[in-house]
Amino acid sequence: TEVTEKLEEVVMIWIKQIRQVLVESEQIRREADDVGPSAELEYWKARMSSFNSLLDEIKSSRVRKIISILQAARSKTLKQWKELDGNVTFAANEAKDNVRYLYTLDKFFGPLAEASPITMMEHVPSLMNTVSMIYCISPYYNTSERMTSLLLKITNQMINTCKKYLCEG
């Protein structure tokens, strides 16, 4: 029982740390007003990387051994652990899926940032079709908040490109 108590203390520390990561990941992002759509992809890539690292740690043999010892001891901390494990898995899957869908927009980011307004407009119908596809198909990215944020960033990039064109011309 002394070993079990020590292991439960360790798991409770992990639970506290993982909860902190999850809480921080859900906080509102602070971004510049004129940030473009590539920032959205970079955000989800970073989030995917951090949650995949956390998942790798959770699935490590060291952690699995401790969890199996606590299962054998019928520890009460396992309920919290399983819930957090599920939340981390969900967050990792969400980030991975969002990166996959946002990569379909990546080919438009260059023309949005570098082209003249006339050339940029040639890409808008395809871009909007791709955004529409993401909205219809993605199980995680199809919320009004996420779409609004993405469309705002696309619009910001278009405005920045037009400003640059006007100042250079």
UniProtKB/TrEMBL annotation:
Pfam families for the chain: DHC_N1
Domain Dynein heavy chain tail: 5-167
GO molecular function ontology, one term from the record: dynein intermediate chain binding
Species name: Ceuthmochares aereus
Name of the featured protein: DYH5 protein
Any single GO CC term annotated in Swiss-Prot or TrEMBL for this entry: axonemal dynein complex
Cross-referenced InterPro entries: DHC, Dynein_heavy_tail
Any Gene Ontology biological process: microtubule-based movement
